[in-house]
Write a structure and sequence with these properties.
By secondary structure, the chain is mostly helical. It contains 21 helices and no strands.
């Protein structure tokens, strides 16, 4: 039984103390993770479908040339940046069960529209507004997860959520290959157009599920499947963590001054702005472009083979998230070291162009490890900012926003489609990014440790002051008592 308990603790985190808490955790795992994962799955399915459509006939049919594919991604990123912080702040005002599904319906309808475009300029317009709607999902969900789960439960839930997006990427390649094989030309539509129709059909029912089942946050939840005892417990289990701020829904005017006056916003934003660019192998579908450029592969193969990178990304994300939760310190920084080293090795293997094609397959698949830091980086930020819910919401949004600010121009400079198949500039940029990630990881680790030491010192000083004040109070009472006794003795004499 002891062995089973340890395995369960490693795989799923701290075992709740009571049967009621176990039942509550099971419910929120099911209803929060099921909706958030399905929502993020459809989110990434949509993003990946553009890359898969590009190598499956869209480029030729829309007469795309030069860096227009990169420009589509850049315009989407600009919309994503514009919507990032407003979307996360709206979660403080509008119930998440309303906001999340509403944004999902908007991007689902726009996905249907993509299936009918006649030129690349129409895709530009659609992708900008899709970016605004889809920016609600990633950081918004990390905010929600940080509102419901304890530190020891957070890492692997973040990992499961992040992996659902990667599964969307994995499924997109498989779906595009199947659609191209079976639906290309049906009803006079190209296979890549059917891909967007199917994507929209998948998205809308998930939004309806969110309207009906999503529980909001612990302090405002009215979910019918939670009893009154469970609603109270969902708050109490987090209040036991003295560092946790569980308030929600009240925006304060001094928020900006408070956030900019501390290191957290700067450190966490810089960390993901840099480390997020290590995902460029997958986000720009470099492997698919490489396969298409060197020739000798069919369209289904070009869609299928990059899925190996995504599969390794999912495995790395889940293993790393589980390990960091199970460790006593719950340190997240080792994951960023692992992904940086993997990115450097993969880049070097691709730079050596005379190397066997099998080594390049290995390098691209190994590059999937660079996704492992996504979940743990946001879990780390959730822990760092756990004592202030408003700061946490803004910091999480800013991390993703600054990463996308960089990502708006990064692929155009270092990964233009015209550089396929070698992407020499991109490989050197990847090595530099991985080294920078290691340096910024150390900086955030150092600042977090310093803040904890300062907090511990202040608490110790407060304890000493309280004891001193209590001692002085006792001494004063003793002196007063002694004086009173002396007065009474003189009076009796």
């Amino acid at each position: 039984m002891a062995v089973m308990h340890k395995i369960r603790h490693f795989v799923w985190g701290e075992v709740p103390a009571s049967k009621t808490e176990r039942k509550l955790l099971l419910k929120i795992d099911w209803f929060i993770l099921s909706y958030c994962c399905l929502m993020y799955f459809s989110n990434y399915l949509d993003r990946s479908n553009v890359s898969n459509a590009y190598v499956s006939g869209m480029r030729e049919e829309l007469n795309m040339h030069g860096t227009q594919f990169n420009q589509i991604n850049t315009i989407f990123t600009c919309g994503y940046i514009v919507g990032m912080i407003p979307n996360n702040l709206m979660l403080q005002v509008v119930p998440p069960r309303i906001w999340f599904p509403s944004m999902q319906i908007i991007w689902g309808v726009l996905t249907f529209c993509t299936s009918a475009v006649r030129n690349v300029q129409q895709i530009y317009a659609i992708r900008f507004f899709q970016g605004m709607a889809e920016s609600s999902t990633f950081v918004g969900t990390h905010y929600i997860l940080g509102s419901w789960y304890k530190p020891g439960e957070l890492g692997k839930r973040s990992g499961i959520f992040t992996s659902s997006g990667l599964i969307g990427t994995l499924f997109s390649g498989v779906l595009q290959a199947a659609v191209y094989t079976h639906l290309n030309g049906v009803a006079g539509r190209s296979g890549w157009r059917w891909l967007f129709i199917i994507d929209g059909v998948i998205t809308l029912p998930i939004a309806v599920y969110g309207y009906l089942m999503f529980p909001d946050v612990p302090t405002t939840t009215k979910a019918f499947y939670l009893s009154e005892e469970e609603r109270l417990l969902s708050c109490e289990r987090l209040e036991s963590d003295k560092e946790k701020d569980i308030e929600h829904g009240h925006l304060s005017l001094n928020l900006v001054r408070r956030i900019l006056g501390r290191w957290r916003w700067y450190g966490c934003s810089l960390l993901f702005a840099v480390s997020g660019e290590t995902e460029s192998f997958g986000s720009n579908n470099l492997m698919g472009q490489w396969l298409k450029a060197i020739g000798g592969f069919t369209v289904p193969q070009i869609d299928y083979y990059p899925s190996g990178m995504t599969a390794f990304a999912i495995a790395s994300t889940l293993v790393c998230a589980t390990w960091t939760d199970a460790s006593k310190s719950r340190a997240r920084w080792p994951v960023l070291v692992y992904m940086s080293i993997s990115g450097i090795i993969a880049s070097i293997c691709i730079l050596i162009w005379s190397s066997p094609i099998g080594l390049k397959f290995f390098a691209y698949y190994l590059a999937g490890a660079t996704y492992a830091g996504q979940a743990t980086t946001f879990a780390w930020a959730n822990q760092i900012c756990a004592d202030n819910h408003q700061e946490r919401a803004v910091v999480l949004a800013s991390m993703n926003m600054w990463n996308n600010v960089v990502n708006a121009w990064w692929p155009l400079v270092f990964y233009p489609a015209t550089d396929a198949p070698r992407f020499t500039k991109g490989m050197w940029a990847m090595i530099g990014t991985c080294i920078a990630t290691l340096l910024v990881t150390w900086l955030v680790w150092y600042l977090e440790r310093r803040e904890k030491r300062q907090k511990t010192r202040r608490q110790s000083e407060e304890v000493v002051e309280k004891r001193s004040a209590k001692s002085v109070d006792v001494d004063e009472k003793s002196l007063r008592s002694h004086a009173e006794s002396s007065r009474r003795s003189r009076e009796s004499a």
